[in-house]
Amino acid sequence: MLLQADGYEVIGEAVDGGSALSESRRLHPDVVLLDVGLPDQSGLDLAGELAAEPDPPAVVLVSSRDQSDFGRLIERSGARGFIAKSRLSADNLQKLIG
User: Fold this and answer.
1) How does pLDDT run across 1-51, given as a tens digit for each residue?
2) Quick one: fold of 2-8+31-97?
3) Which of 20, 50, 66, 97 could form an S-S bond across to 14 if both were Cys, CB 3.0 to 4.6 Å?
4) Residue 63: exposed, middle, or buried by beta-carbon count in 10 A (0-12, 13-18, 19+)?
5) Distance (Å, whole) CA 64 – CA 59
6) In sequence order, which ranges of the chain are alpha helices (DSSP H)?
7) What is the pLDDT of residues 48-78, one digit of tens each?
8) Domain locations in the chain?
9) Rounded-to-integer distance, Cα 86 and Cα 76, Å
10) For the chain, what percentages of helix, strand and coil (3-state, to nearest 5) are there?
11) What is the pTM of this model?
């Protein structure tokens, strides 16, 4: 709702990594906000899978934890970057995706 209020169109949601990959392939979003802690796999690993897709979306990792908790794993994940959920905003998202 926060991002929709700032002009982003939310075209899908997923409850776990498997459905996130399926939905991304089906919907071809420009941006995927991906929680690091998924029930079935690491969002860090899934970010790499999404980045390897043909015409990949810009993947932005989110978590309730701080970025420093993940060290260099975020850089290695293939994601554009990371935003803590407490700092998630359209402005911060735009800074990462350009």
Assistant:
1) 888 888 899 999 999 999 999 999 999 999 999 999 999 999 999 999 999
2) Rossmann fold (3.40.50)
3) 20
4) buried
5) 17
6) 2-5, 17-27, 43-51, 73-76, 90-97
7) 999 999 999 999 999 999 999 998 999 999 9
8) 2-8+31-97
9) 23
10) 45, 15, 40
11) 0.92
